Amino acid sequence: MDNNILSALSAIDVAQLSRAEWIAVGMALKEEGYPCSIWDDWSKNDDRYHPGECQKKWDGFHGNGKPVKGGTIVQMAKERGWMPHPDRDQALNWDDTIEYDGMDGFNGFATEPWNPAQDLTTYLELLFDRDDIVGYVTGDVWQNADGKWLPSKGVYDRTAGELIDSLKKHPDDVGATVGDWKPDCGAWIRFNPLDGDGVKNENVTKFRYALVESDTLPIAEQDILFRKLELPIAAIVHSGGKSLHAIVHIDADSYEEYRKRVEYLYDFLEKHGVSIDKQNRNPSRLSRMPGVTRNGNRQYLVATNIGRKSWVDWMDFAEGVSDELPDMVALSEYKDNPPQLPEELIEGILRRGHKMLISGSSKAGKSFLLMELCIAIAEGRPWLGFNCRKGRVLYVNLEIDPASAINRFLKIYEALGLPMKHSDDIVIWNLRGHAVPLDQLVPKLIRRVRDQHLDAIVLDPIYKVITGDENNASEMGAFCNQFDKICTETGCSTIYCHHHSKGAQGAKKAMDRASGSGVFARDPDAQLDMIQLELTDDLKNNVRDGNATAWRLESSLREFANIRPVNFWFEYPVHRLDDTGELDGLGAEGSPIGNLTKSSRYTTPQQRADEINTAYDACSINQPVRVSDLAEYLGLSERCVRDRLKELPDTYRNDRGVVIRIDSTRKNEK
């Protein structure tokens, strides 16, 4: 890397550049091999800075036939009065002192005289108490077969206080304190105190620090990453070679705790792009001693007390960085480029990648309905009157015998009169007898479907894989989070079914009928609820199939307006829409209107008026009364309620959906 580029960059005021010039700087830095963090930190000095924008632009720089190079930055700086250092016009040497303070960018290179004894004194005062025994190696070295100089045990019987006092007594001669070192290999020091009996791990008395070193990253990038990741660094020492030695706070009470913390630290660094030497994990490890020279290069103290102040303090930062949560983004980022909404898998009900719950009683044929949905998606045809986008779907069968499940699909195809053109887009995973709790099943499912190119995953039924108490909101919240994980990891819609609670359901809202905690109603993006209708005697005698049952589908939707309730018949093995309207006036199982209409299909005008009056009295506790309130109370469609109100023009007025009782209004006026 050319140090002139970094020096030139520090001379350019980003706030004075046009956007095109700013982008040119970023392209030049990338072309010259610098990390994005340098461009990002320099850019922070501009009021126009937006977090994340540099990285986004950086990822889009792919190069071309005429790339923007570092000379662009140098020329910009020269135009603003900067001149290159006459002695620094060559590539960066390993013994060059790097001064980088993060927010303000690189400020060139250190020019003040070097004080070796002061470097070592500061190091000892930072890392040790005066009575701590310090281990170090100077002249006691040996050379292996490859000609590499290696340290031996060295000295381990002197205290930090003794060394500090000696350095102050001989400020111009470090060798007078620690002994002479071989110029070819420099000197080493142990960063944790010893007991004076040896230099092994068991001789370490306090597990304060660990060594972080990378031999693969450029020196400048090491410094940047150590600071960016806010490592709790007591001291950074330039090795005189190709790495920085960061002495990092570990603050462990025992070797076992030290080992675990260092393991966490190293894993964290690897995950964040810092390739490190993992041989340095031992607490008795030697590091480079500041204040000496190596092959003519300095081993010197680069920085002290940077980043977080302690291991505990740094863990707050590390857990925040590693929590795997998405970044926070300002709304303004989307002003001119709003994110595209996922396509609708079921028109007006469910988007791709969202969750849907179908709830109903055990007599509703929920599994058949889900199989019909799988067929509708695979064949790209309507389902209960709602258009489905053609796609590929996985049906996870958790309950019935595999042969029965397959034969159900075949019977449904036959009953619908559909040719099996795209049945290969329905994948069946039979897990009866193999079901495990959902939190254990989800990782296996995600792994299995990775290359299946699915659009939807249907789990039927969820009681087979439920974990925890279904009436406990906290436990059900954790359970439902698994559906989010499926959606996020696969990009598929997740569709599942659940049963109703015990007792009549007609008096309840659709979202309150599912058994267990209310989490089941609040969690999905779409909830569809099936409730049985009370048939009149006439309908019972005239149904096309003597075993047919009548149902109404109601919704609670997050992405769309709630659907108009859909009435249909369940005629084994399929559900058929009521296209005659004969089910419109029927009440749901357990509802007041359902009980009123059990004996007669065709109500009299007086019966209809009485039902409206009863419903209005019940709903008028919380004024105003809306058509939708009466419809929900009576278990009728809003259209049916409006028709009934038209039969009572002298009693009720429908004012844009608000129902007003005329006679009571007049009384109030009097």
Overview of this structure, please?
By secondary structure, this protein is of the alpha+beta class. The chain folds into 4 domains: 3-109, no CATH class; 116-321, Alpha-Beta Plaits, CATH 3.30.70.1790; 344-530, Rossmann fold (3-Layer(aba) Sandwich); 603-669, Arc Repressor Mutant, subunit A, CATH 1.10.10.10. The protein contains 22 helices and 28 strands. The longest helix is centred in the last third of the chain and has 18 residues, at 473-490.
Q: What descriptive keywords fit this protein?
A:
single chain, 670 residues, alpha+beta, Rossmann fold, 4 domains, four-stranded antiparallel β-sheet, 28 strands, 20% strand
Catalogue the unreliable spans: 86-111, 595-601, 665-670
Going by helix content, strand content and strand pairing, the class is alpha+beta
Q: Based on the structure, what is the oligomeric state of the protein chains?
A: single chain
CATH class (first level) name of the largest domain: Alpha Beta
Number of strands: 28
Question: What's the architecture of the largest domain in CATH terms?
Answer: 2-Layer Sandwich
Share of helix among residues? 25-40%
The biggest beta sheet is recorded as: 9 strands, mixed
- Put simply, the count of helices is 22
Portion in strands: 15-25%
Termini separation comes to 92 Å
